[in-house]
Amino acid sequence: MHVKQGAPLNPLEHQLAYPWSEIPAAGTAFTLRPGLHWLRMSPPFALDHINLWLLDDEIDGPHGKIRGFTAIDCGITSEATMAAWERLFDTFFAGKPLLRVIATHFHPDHVGLAHWLTRGGKQHRWRAPLWMSAAEYGYARFMSADADDSRGDSQVKHFRRHGLTDAESLAKLRTRGTGYYRSLVPAVPAAYRRISDGEQFDIGARRFRAIVGHGHSVEHVSLYCESDRLLVSGDMVLPRISTNVAVYDLEPDADPLPRYLRSLDRYLPLPADTLVLPSHGKPFTGLHTRVMQQHQHHAARLAEVLAACSTPRSAADIVPVLFKRELDLHQLTFALGESLAHLHALWHEGRLQRLRGADESIRFVVADAARA
Predict the structure, then answer these.
(1) Per residue of the chain (372 residues), what is the pLDDT tens digit?
(2) What is the CATH number of domain 11-147+180-292?
């Protein structure tokens, strides 16, 4: 579940270390290490920021090396985000081009502005390729091009089936579901360069290895630089909030939570002092600790959900079990999806049974109780 950056510190955060206390303002770059720069954009969500990363890079040109930058993630398509990038082009870039855009996954705050950045912004300064995994690129193209007005109806049906019955909330979801993704990602570049799991490639003086993860999205790409002990984690490892792992209408029987937890374990062979560059929150060290915290967090949540399902429960019934604070509608959709992910993990394991009502409603109950 996403919470605002200004929320009180989670006590578990004290087990992590934050080398930098400064946070870059929108439209500025903060240099962490030579050739590695931290940007921050401010989307209009409850999660009020995204970290982007800019790395010094170079490519072979017709008359020698062309020096410029590679951007990792983009921000959403909005006037504010474009203006922040334009300020960077006019100042920090100092006439150098953007040579490549890498998107860790298809969510709007990560790929939304790729169509604009790869064309060189408002002035069309350059042509830069987009790099993504195949599944993430495919999802972005599908979601951005989807003109099906029934998408809102599909989301309403999904959430109503799982216990959301408030008519006003459902009406808002129906309106938002139609064209919402397209409003933040109005276009996706027509071609891309595929990133595959385990692939290694250079960005400037650094060699990175792609580590593909699942659960938060379909084929999320994190990037690890061994020589620098540096992990660009995207949304897979975040320091102060739990990565959203949810079930939505496009894949209504999905089981994303075990996939996410297995993906987290792929980071454990990395050095304990790896510097993690997350998409939300500040850069930190303590990767192994954070992975274990996430395993413990979800184990505890699964135990709570299992106990709550001694009698039949919907996903909406589970939301207050997992989230102890008031939620707006946007946050509620994340919470419902995440509650359903925990229910599905237990259902796919055979520890819960899924019950379907005559009205298509779905509830879950402990398997032994269901058979009694």
Answers:
(1) 333 333 444 566 678 999 998 899 988 999 999 999 999 998 776 667 999 999 999 999 888 999 999 999 999 999 999 999 999 999 999 999 999 999 999 999 999 999 999 999 999 999 999 999 999 999 999 999 876 666 788 889 999 999 999 888 888 888 776 688 999 999 999 999 999 999 999 999 999 999 999 999 999 999 999 999 999 999 999 998 899 999 999 999 999 999 999 999 999 999 999 999 999 999 999 999 999 999 999 999 999 999 999 999 999 999 999 998 888 888 889 999 999 999 999 999 999 999 999 999 999 999 985 455
(2) 3.60.15.10
Token pair of 240 as six digits? 């102060």
Could you tell me the residue ranges of all domains in the chain?
Answer: 11-147+180-292
DSSP state of 246: -
C-alpha dist (Å) from residue 224 to 95, 99, 282, 289:
29, 20, 17, 18
User: Residue 311 has which token pair?
Assistant: 């009698």
CA-wise closest residue to 237 among 274, 209, 186: 274
Distance of alpha carbon 127 from alpha carbon 59, whole angstroms = 13
CA distance 34 to 372: 65
Q: Whole-angstrom Cα distance, residue 43 to residue 205?
A: 31
Residue whose token pair is 């600790």: 289
Question: Please, what is the Cα angle at 88 between 87 and 90, to 5 degrees?
Answer: 65
> Taking Cα atoms as reference points, which of 187, 180, 191, 185 lies closest to residue 156?
180
Q: Which residue has the tokens 């960077």?
A: 88
Element (DSSP H or E) covering residue 109: helix 108-111
Contact 162, 362 (CB under 8 A): yes
d(CA 176, CA 152): 7
Would the pTM of this model clear 0.90, i.e. be above it? yes
Given a contact cutoff of 8 angstroms between Cβ atoms, the answer to whether 287 and 237 are in contact is yes
